[in-house]
Amino acid sequence: MAEATVNDVKIEDAGPARKRLTITIPVETIAEKIDDSLATLMAKTALPGFRKGRAPRHLLERRFGEAVRAETKNQLMADAYASAIEEHEIKPVGEPEPVEPMDELEIEPGQPLTFSLHVEVVPEFEVPPLDSVEIKKPILEIEDEHIEAEKKRQCRELGEPSEIEQDFQGGDRLLGYATVSKEDDEEPFFRSDEVVITFPEEEDEGKGQVLGLLIDDLAALLKDRKVGDQLTIKTSGPEHHEREDIRGKKLTIEFEIRGAQRITPATIEEVIRHYDMASEEILREQVKLALEQRRDEEQATAMREQVFEYLLEHVDFELPEKLSAAQVERSLERHRLEMLYRGMTPDEVEKRLAEIRGESEYRALGRLKLSFILHKLAQEFTVEVSDQEINGRIAAIAAQRGVRPDQLRAELVQSDRLNQVAIQLREHKTADRIVQQAKVTDISADEWRKMVEAKAAEKPAKSGKKKSKKSKTDKPQAEES
Q1: Domain 8-120, what fold?
Q2: N or C: which terminus of the chain has fewer CB atoms within 10 Å of its end residue's CB?
Q3: What H or E segment, with its residue span, contains residue 20?
Q4: What share of the chain is helix, strand, coil (3-state, %, to 5)?
Q5: Taking a C-beta distance cutoff of 8 angstroms, is the pair 76, 25 a contact?
Q6: Could you tell me if 2 and 29 are in contact, meaning their C-beta atoms sit under 8 angstroms apart?
Q7: Helix 418-436 vs helix 387-401: angle between axes, to the nearest 10 degrees?
Q8: What is the pLDDT of residues 89-128, one digit of tens each?
């Protein structure tokens, strides 16, 4: 058997964590692939006047040659890229980008095929010492005020919506038709008649999210409006949005208010009946238990966040100049799952995601750097995630959302997000491994709050952004209950 002809692969640096691969496929490989394709075609094709498998090759080439060469080119390039990645142990973090338009490349008789790709790769860096990490553990006791606040929240969650026409206030939901247009585009790139906008609460300082974008003056725009009105919202696409085509673009949102709802909180008796409990005292006990579980998870989250800060402070490397949409989307999806797991409502999650999309470059790059650091540490620690752990996390998120675990799992599978649950678990287990060997000091809830506020005051100096009031969703939920 003849030895397989090897492709020629040239690898060059093309920027931070970015390689340029120039691959040349030899003439012999191309000819062999075309011969195989034509032989398969000949066996399956019947031309007029010829039985199947008997048509002359030159007739098949005349009729199907262009299609065969195009298909052969695509298959050869895909195989060559996969072989180059494996042979040279390249670790891509996204899809390769052609240097030249691929549709302009053609297979020429007797000529090799050369093409170039840009590939974003896993950055190279050294892991810092992990035996000197100092972590504060916030200690919080669940008090009566926390329990009462959670009971009120349950009343709001189980409340009944009623239709309203005007005089909108915090928490009201406006339903309607929306379009979104980019600057210089004649037609909107997005249309939907199922858009919901929540009127900002008092503590939101007038800010709210619309279609995943944070609007600073949303309350002012909605004030004095009524059902039937149409409003125009001007904003800009965040520089690190998961949709590359709207990054930095001026956007216009047109929203027609077609309906509005206000939630009337349920009574405590209705809440007791909903959960099929015998008395308010039993409800109280269950609420306290749930708050303690949430407190424990928030405590673990607080310690993980300190690990993340330590890693970002002690590991420095450059990311690819162009952050791919897939990288940003994966990062946002893990944040979505994290917040749902911590018990935030869907409205709170979407508002926080809108804030994350609008964060400074400093914060956005930090989030992506952290994912690379944790991935490398997980490999060094040989951290594995079992199916049982994934199912447990899905069940926990489903319980917070009030849906069945199988329903949520099907939703995650359909949207190709199930892998993000596994990645989130692996990152948590990796951070927890570092916490186990860290120097941990207990501090009171008040001390923790002051520490968080002090760190928040320092961040604008690094990010170049003015400090804004800290969102309540940044606090441990057991603390704010």
Answers
A1: Alpha-Beta Plaits (3.30.70)
A2: N
A3: strand 18-25
A4: 50, 20, 30
A5: yes
A6: no
A7: 100
A8: 898 877 888 988 888 888 888 889 999 999 988 888 898 8
CATH of 160-264, one of 3.10.50.40, 3.40.640.10, 3.40.50.261, 3.40.50.1580: 3.10.50.40
What's CA 96's distance to the chain center, in Å? 20
Q: Which residue do the tokens 């059902």 mark?
A: 227
Give bridge partners of residue 139 from the DSSP assignment: 444
What would the two tokens of residue 405 be? Answer: 């675990």
Q: Report CA torsion sign: 413, 416, 419, 423.
A: negative
Residues 269-278 pLDDT 10s: 999 999 899 9
Is the whole model's pTM more than 0.90, yes or no?
Answer: no
* CA pair distance 264, 28, nearest whole angstrom: 75
Q: How many other β-carbons are positioned within 10 Å of the β-carbon of residue 267?
A: 12
- Ramachandran region of residue 11, left (φ > 0), alpha (ψ -120 to 50) or beta? beta
Beta-bridge partners for 472: none
**Taking the domains of the chain in order of start, what are their residue ranges?**
8-120, 134-156+272-480, 160-264
The answer regarding whether domain 134-156+272-480 maps to CATH 1.10.3120 reads yes
